[in-house]
Amino acid sequence: MLAPVLAQAQPSICVETSKSATPNGKPAVALLVNGLLVVRLAKPEGDLSPQRRISIVAARLTEAYREGHTN
């Protein structure tokens, strides 16, 4: 008789960006982690658009999460 095998789900993270709006209706870009709003940006900073800034944050957050789960 074989012993039952326990399956354990691997922890994961879902980082995504989407078009959004500020509370007063101005166009913005949102960063969501596992479906929850983390930050919303509407203004450029230096040479970076809000979309580019959010994309950089999303990539760094995903990388940091993966590194933390492979060590």
Task: Provide structural commentary.
- A hairpin with a 5-residue loop joins strand 1 (15-21) and strand 2 (27-33).
- The chain has a 3-stranded antiparallel β-sheet, with helices on one face.
- It is of the alpha+beta class and 71 residues long.
- It is built from 1 helix and 3 strands.
- It has one domain (15-68).
- It is elongated.
Name the descriptors.
single chain, 1 helix, 27% helix
Summarize the structure.
This protein is α+β, with helices and mostly antiparallel strands.
Strands, count: 3
Report mean pLDDT, rounded to a whole number: 88
Largest sheet: 3 strands, antiparallel
Give the helix tally: 1
The helix content is 25-40%
**Can you tell me the residue ranges where pLDDT is under 50 for at least 5 consecutive residues?**
none
Q: Widest sheet: strand order?
A: 1-2-3
The ordered H/E elements are EEEH
Give the overall shape, derived from the CA principal axes. Answer: elongated
* Number of domain units: 1
Cα(first) to Cα(last) distance is 36 Å
Radius of gyration: 18 Å
DSSP strand content: 25-35%
Structural classification = alpha+beta
Ordered list of secondary-structure elements with their pairings:
Layout: E1 15-21, E2 27-33, E3 36-41, H1 50-68
Antiparallel strand pairs: 1-2, 2-3
